[in-house]
Amino acid sequence: MTKLNQIALKILENGKGILAADESTGTMTKRFDSVKVKSTPENRILFRETLFSSDGMKKYIGGVILYDETIKQKSNTGKSIPDMLLEIGSCPGIKVDTGAKQLAGSLNEKITEGLDNLRDRLKEYSKLGAKFTKWRGVYNINKDCPSKLSISSNAHALARYAALVQESDMVPIVEPEVLMEGNHSADECFNKTSEVIKKCFDELILHKVDLTGVILKPNMILAGINSKNQISNDETARLTVKCLKESVPSEVPGIAFLSGGQSEIQATENLNLINKFNNTKFIMSYSYGRALQQSALKYWSKDTKDAEGTQKIFDHRAKMCSLAAQGKWSKNLENI
Ligand code: 13P
């Protein structure tokens, strides 16, 4: 077993998953605005540290994706955030892309940037304690999208990123996110997601990325949010497992889904069904942002000093996701 494979398994094994706390300052400001909290560096670390010091972190969160600001901040005990996470047995990770920008040659598609100086930035993050990284490509579905250009340029960027990350002895999370926005059918989502993921792995192989040291972070297969033909959670789970079985090389140790705008319960229920139907060798777990933090943020915003109350809500959510990652969740557990 390689060192990278060990890190990937440590993050995802035993019903653990990932907390995606890597919202950029802009995104975090939007989240704080929605609950009327001022987005200052102090408030951002206060909320995040409240979650990081909870019981649920130790039990259910194998890795946390941090943002550049957070990985350099200190906890209130004076420890660095990566040290604080390492001490409780959770791996610190870092988002290293610099965002999705307009793709030249396409009217309305995006290409994720951040390859310039990446090798040097990775060295710095590794010194700060990071064990894994994240890079997200985004794809829209509509009549002409995602185009071959967007599929191929984002796959190329993801592969160059992943190769550099492994060179720095960290595990790359490869995140090609086909967005839920739009009125496309679940079948279209299935076809486009399959095409996107296959192209990503073609490029990863071309760039000699060790697939045993990669975590894939995909979307689930859903109809667009504006589609009149929504599918059941059962169908989502079956189609998602089928898509991944057909598109992901068997060497990949683990898959950690994004929640992508699904409600907390929907993201939990779908993950649970996916694990019930999982007939692959892949670990199928979570790398949720909103579906782990939404309720906790809402509660915290009412009294930012109530760490205990906030942690109780986060612990419950993390426990539900962990049960779902093992196919052991049921709706009645939500009411306890
Ligand atoms: P959501 O679970 O809120 O989609 O966030 C996960 C993530 O990291 C998106 O890049």
Polypeptide structure, described:
This protein is 48% helix and 15% strand. The chain is an alpha/beta fold and 336 residues long. It has a single domain (3-335), classed as Aldolase class I (TIM Barrel), CATH 3.20.20.70. The strands form 2 sheets. It has an 8-stranded parallel barrel, surrounded by 7 helices. A two-stranded antiparallel ribbon has the order 4-5. The protein is globular and about 50 Å long. It binds 1,3-dihydroxyacetonephosphate.
Q: Could you give a quick summary of the protein structure above?
A:
The protein is α/β, with parallel strands linked by helices and about 325 residues long. The protein has helices at about 5-10, 25-35, 40-50, 55-60, 70, 80-85, 120-130, 150-165, 185-205, 235-245, 265-275, 290-300, 305-325, and strands spanning about 15-20, 60-65, 90-95, 100, 110, 130-140, 170-180, 215, 255, 285-290. The structure holds 1,3-dihydroxyacetonephosphate.
